[in-house]
Design goal:
2 domains; mainly alpha; 106 residues; 90% helix
Amino acid sequence: MIDLSALPLIITVPACFTGGLLIGYGSFCALRETANLIAHAGHPLHAFAAENEARLQAMSAAGSQITRELEVFRVTLRRVRQKAITAGIIELSTAAASANMAKSSD
């Protein structure tokens, strides 16, 4: 980036003024084109709005589908976790019963 403080004011002021004019002109052109679309050729704006509405509906439907699938995965995870816990409890209780039998037979 150029250090403008090193340049003399006779160069800096016109350069900044010209840059501001170019930015302003670009903004004005964009605003004028938008006004022309609204006033004279509204159809592209309607098509743009309809396209965005369709996109929003598709994203909403996809979000709902993801929510449903996520709930199915959560239920499956709970079932798998519960089966693992039950298997662990059965294993511990079987080991404890075997240990008690071994003690009683001694």
